[in-house]
Design brief:
Length: about 290
């Protein structure tokens, strides 16, 4: 059995926070491909992940959110899919190996394409698309596959099928973003998501991103109540809500707010608590201390 499940049987674990905003602070421009930094500025990616691991994250996330073919193609990088995803996994592996009890989640974001009939993605083409990314992440040494910020259960099914085929035995973690009246953009409710995904054999299921810690509390309650036997719940809340400041959005959630959120998640029975947009290692440290 995976060491991840063994650890989750014992304690509440911490997952890391935002990558995108951290890279923008380090000079990534709007419209730049974050994944390119896995080969061009690996020391920057390593520094961000090291800061999260040092802050107490038991899970760090590879810098591969946009590593599917369609999203890389927006930057003309589709031919470098295997290279960029594998490099992202290798960096995270190196950091995790310096921190006992730290696991690497190979990050899979939405493909950017819609499922048939609204779009062109079918279960077969979707599975092939995600398989390419997952193979590269596995080659780089990830401990788990994280399928995140999802809205459409059909797309998740394609990614899960790919992970089960390409990475048999690796834990699969799925988080959906319930950011539209406590449902995903495609209308999926938390209880529906956790039951549906558990039936596919996924054992770590939850929510990320969203509309702040208050909404995440409600979502967590619904997830925990509907949780089938043997399923672990993960929540990764944004650090508060975005506020327009000048010409950019700043998240208003302080590390103290994240500490309150973490304690509440633990009381509710959530097994992995982390953060998402607007967060930094200071937020992760706060979460780890609260747990
Ligand atoms: Zn987010």
């Amino acid at each position: 059995m995976s060491a991840i499940y063994e650890a989750l049987e014992k304690v509440t674990l911490v997952s890391d926070g935002a990558m995108g905003t951290m890279l923008q602070d380090r000079g990534l421009t709007d419209g730049g491909a974050p994944e390119l930094w896995n080969v061009e500025k690996p020391e920057e990616i390593e520094a961000v992940l090291e800061a999260y691991a040092a802050a107490g994250a038991n899970f760090i996330t590879t810098n591969t959110f946009g590593g599917t073919a369609g999203r890389l193609a927006m930057h003309g990088l589709e031919d470098r899919l295997a290279e960029l995803n594998k490099a992202g996994a290798v960096i995270a592996r190196k950091v995790a190996d310096r921190h006992p009890g730290c696991f690497v989640m190979g990050d899979i974001g939405p493909s950017g394409e819609l499922m048939d009939p609204m779009g062109t993605l079918t279960p077969e083409t979707g599975k092939a698309l995600f398989s390419a990314q997952i193979s590269a992440l596995v080659a780089g040494g990830v401990d788990a596959i994280l399928i995140e910020t999802m809205s459409d259960l059909g797309e998740v099914e394609a990614a899960v099928a790919a992970a089960q085929e390409v990475a048999p035995g690796l834990p699969i973690i799925v988080t959906m973003s319930f950011d539209t009246n406590l449902r995903t953009m495609m209308g999926v409710k938390p209880a529906m998501a956790i039951k549906h995904l558990a039936a596919l054999g996924v054992r770590i299921i939850g929510a990320n991103c969203g509309r702040g810690t208050d909404e995440m509390s409600q979502i967590a309650k619904e997830l925990v109540e509907a949780r089938p036997e043997g399923v672990f719940v993960i929540t990764q809340s944004n650090a508060g809500l975005p506020k327009l400041q000048g010409d950019e959005f700043i998240y208003d959630g302080t590390p103290e707010e994240m500490a309150r959120y973490a304690a509440e998640m633990k009381d509710l029975g959530v097994n992995i608590v982390g953060s998402c947009c607007g967060s930094s290692p200071a937020h992760t440290q706060s979460i780890a201390a609260a747990l």
